[in-house]
Amino acid sequence: xxxxxxxxxxxxxxxxxxxxxxxxxxxxxxxxxxxxxxxxxxxxxxxxxxxxxxxxxxxxxxxxxxxxxxxxxxxxxxxxxxxxxxxxxxxxxxxxxxxxxxxxxxxxxxxxxxxxxxxxxxxxxxxxxxxxxxxxxxxxxxxxxxxxxxxxxxxxxxxxxxxxxxxxxxxxxxxxxxxxxxxxxxxxxxxxxxxxxxxxxxxxxxxxxxxxxxxxxxxxxxxxxxxxxxxxxxxxxxxxxxxxxxxxxxxxxxxxxxxxxxxxxxxxxxxxxxxxxxxxxxxxxxxxxxxxxxxxxxxxxxxxxxxxxxxxxxxxxxxxxxxxxxxxxxxxxxxxxxxxxxxxxxxxxxxxxxxxxxxxxxxxxxxxxxxxxxxxxxxxxxxxxxxxxxxxxxxxxxxxxxxxxxxxxxxxxxxxxxxxxxxxxxxxxxxxxxxxxxxxxxxxxxxxxxxxxxxxxxxxxxxxxxxxxxxxxxxxxxxxxxxxxxxxxxxxxxxxxxxxxxxxxxx
Length: 507
Prior knowledge:
The protein has 18 helices and 15 strands. By secondary structure, the protein is α/β, with parallel strands linked by helices.
């Protein structure tokens, strides 16, 4: 570059000829002509080097590396393995470093290049993206696999999250309803991958056979859906929510949260969503809260009534007073044994109904074979079979949940000591039946008061429980206060005389 500059300057200042310039700068006249024609030297030509050693094996190695494109990632050729095969199978006399150099070159040639993408812009309220992501939490002391539902507005970047114990359609729809309510509106279109709750079958291209229930849900809220390409090829088509799920998991669920229930975890998730409103997303000029405030008026209004996201089923009560729903079992009152009942299966709750009346509610179980048994449902049969209580599964679950407290245990122990095992257990069951009409805390207070009076009578527990619950109790009248009601005994002498007269006359 500098030599070209000197040649051009000498020509410009001194007007030297091409021959003189070549002699002064000790270069060929051809170089002088190139310098005078352009200030930039021409690119040097690189000669194609022959590969006398590797050349015969290049088609073989290229074939191996092309086959690797469809092989599992962890079982593909390395440069060392290519060298080993060339030596062992083809008798090649070639160095590993030479093979490594050519493998890198061929791999770059056969590997597919990155797909070209076009930057997108999103109008306010026009679009959102939805996805599920896997998360873990310690719930009631147990490490549990859960699913994070995320709905993210494409314009403002505001995201709403909720954790469910399942990816079933009930959770999928409930997540939408919760997000719509918190946003105060509905976006015009939502992007999905091919989640089973929405898509019954993937057809050619972007055509889908959708779930009938999902179609009804979408019609109810009045928005359109867009389906991404199946697999990893379509991940970039909803990259906003894909990145959001990972970001939220790293920033709000690390370390692994420890909670007593799923409801407590969702309270934390909701608080995290509110805190994120103060964040500024890369490429945006304002906070999420400010951008959402500008986008909110463009959302479609909510439907007048919320869509019923629960699934309505029917089940028969077995001999152990349970219904089986999605391979999990839930207890109902023993009076329903053998009958068919209605089941409302929600994302987080299972309700059992008889003629429209709810007779049992349970938190939804997820793992196959899990049970949710309520001790109160079995009290009528336990009155007849008091010996079955001690080892019963409902009692164990009641103890684990805290519904059967230390007060219950203390009362039961005292009742068995005073009345014997059978009658003492029946006294406990009579006390437990009070919890159907009185607050459980009031019944426990009644038990403690009865024990302080050195009695285990269920009647005393009932009186004290009603007093603790604030019910009016008839006052106890002292015996001495009844003296003012005393009257002389009636005189029956005339009646007795009449009886004697009748007997004499034979009447």
